[in-house]
Amino acid sequence: MKIAVINCGSSSLKFKLFEMPGAKVLRSELVEHIGEPNSSVANHFEAIESLHVNFSEIDAVGHRVVHGGEKFRGSVLIDDAVVQTIRKLIPLAPLHNPANLEGIEVVRQKASNIPQIAVFDTAFHTTLKKEAFVYALSYALYEKHDIRRYGFHGTSHACLLHKAAALLGKKVQETNIITLHLGNGASACAIKKGKSCDTSMGFTPLEGLVMGSRCGDIDPAIVLYLQKSLHVNAEEIDEMLNKKSGLLGLCGENDVRNIEKRTDEAAKMAMDIMVRRIQKYIGAYMVLLEDVDAIVFSGGIGENSSYVRERVMNNKILKNIKSLVIKTDEELQIVNECLEVLKK
Ligand code: AMP
């Protein structure tokens, strides 16, 4: 059986074709700069067209969908009602859910008979309890406006959980780990008995760790100060916090390969701040989990930077905990979930 995985980002499209079971990759493609000025690819429809996919040989298509809100607690077969709900969630993920819907729509137009499955970035974190997902704001903001921690990178944390459990020789439902997805976007997850029990990203992917260009945790009063005293408007603040902060804001670039080689104060400070934030989350999650089988490093930085890994683990308490380096594979996780949905 051939299953395709389509991962539509706001300006990119990843396509992978798998032979299942066994997950042999038959084809892997990446289309970038979709809809950008001077790009030959105007939208996700054209991106798929450019790949000349033969849909008649494909048995099912899995889509990564960023935001499933509280509605989707797992992967689902896509029908009109599912599409409607993903559309309703656009205000919570204004850049990503529309791109994901475009991917779904393209396949519907090209091959309406193929079953399509939605795999949500948020679903893995729907096991969070209220004490983990409710912010200490007026409770009405959660009840009436859905303001809560959702968490993201769920397919990656789920993939890391399954791979770590196999490496540790444990059942998934008995595995207690802290997973660190450290890429340009970064998040930590405390996994207790195979379930996400806390995660660093929140209402949006802005909260938590220091990222390539996102600030992660800050005092929310800074936003008010920027607005009132420095007269920066909401769009500008959004741009500042998401695109001009993190490693980029601290030392002028976000490529850890280069930052590691630099010897100047700004580069050293950026690394110090990033490492300290990771350690703070590990410390907090160790207390929540009580038993920690391993700390798992993943993502472009976690998988490749021994410098960052050693800096994080160079600590009297952490020295006694096993650390694992695991390559995350979101498409593999998606295709495995597709198979589970199709079996039902
Ligand atoms: P990702 O978003 O998962 O692709 O990760 C991107 C981040 O991984 C960037 O900050 C890269 O600098 C970093 N990265 C990739 N390869 C390496 C490497 N060999 N050493 C250190 N950092 C790396």
Could you explain the architecture of this structure?
There is one protein chain. α11 crosses α13. The chain has 14 helices and 11 strands. A 6-stranded mixed sheet has the order 3-2-1-4-6-5, with helices on both faces. Strands 9-8-7-10-11 form a 5-stranded mixed sheet, with helices on both faces. The chain has 344 residues and is α/β, with parallel strands linked by helices. 41% of the residues lie in helices and 18% in strands. A hairpin with a 3-residue loop joins β7 and β8. It folds into 2 domains: 119 residues, 2-Layer Sandwich (Nucleotidyltransferase, domain 5); 159 residues, 2-Layer Sandwich (Nucleotidyltransferase, domain 5), CATH 3.30.420.40. It is globular and about 55 Å long. The site of adenosine monophosphate has 12 residues, from α10 and α12.
Q: What can be said about this structure in brief?
A:
Its main location: cytoplasm. The chain is an alpha/beta fold and 344 residues long. 41% of the residues lie in helices and 18% in strands.
Helical amount: 40-55%
- The second-level CATH architecture of the largest domain is 2-Layer Sandwich
Write down the CATH class of the largest domain: Alpha Beta
Walk across the major sheet and give the strand order: 3-2-1-4-6-5
CATH topology of the largest domain, which one?
A: Nucleotidyltransferase, domain 5
Query: N-to-C terminal Cα separation, in Å?
Result: 16 Å
Number of strands: 11
Relative strand content: 15-25%
Structural class call reads: alpha/beta
* Whole-angstrom Rg: 20 Å
Largest sheet: 6 strands, mixed
Give the name of the CATH superfamily of the largest domain.
ATPase, nucleotide binding domain
Number of helices: 14
Ions, cofactors and other bound molecules: adenosine monophosphate
Order of helices and strands: EEEHEEHHEHHHEEEHHHHHEHHEH
| Dominant shape | globular
Report the uncertain regions.
none
Whole-number total of structural domains: 2
Query: What would the average pLDDT be, to the nearest integer?
Result: 96
InterPro entries: Ac/propionate_kinase, Aliphatic_acid_kin_short-chain, Aliphatic_acid_kinase_CS, ATPase_NBD
Catalytic activity: acetate + ATP = acetyl phosphate + ADP
Cofactor: Mg(2+); Mn(2+)
Pfam families: Acetate_kinase (PF00871)
